[in-house]
Amino acid sequence: MAESKEIPSQYDLDAKWDAYLDLGVRRFVYSSATGVLAGLLLFRSPVLHWASVAFGAGVGIGSAYSECSHKFNEA
Questions:
Q1: Residue 61 has what pLDDT?
Q2: What's the domain of life for this entry (predicted)?
């Protein structure tokens, strides 16, 4: 009979990458939306609207990268 072989969670890279991709997409979307809202409320120039969106997206991607690299190097 075939035995079921479980992969320990510390070696399951597929699950890690799925979780990190999910975290990255969420933080990118949420911080970009916050940048849109802040740009619409605080600035009049279209250039500053886009700058606030880009800043928010950068903050989201940076924080996701930081947390993911921290978790990857933990094991």
A1: 95
A2: Eukaryota
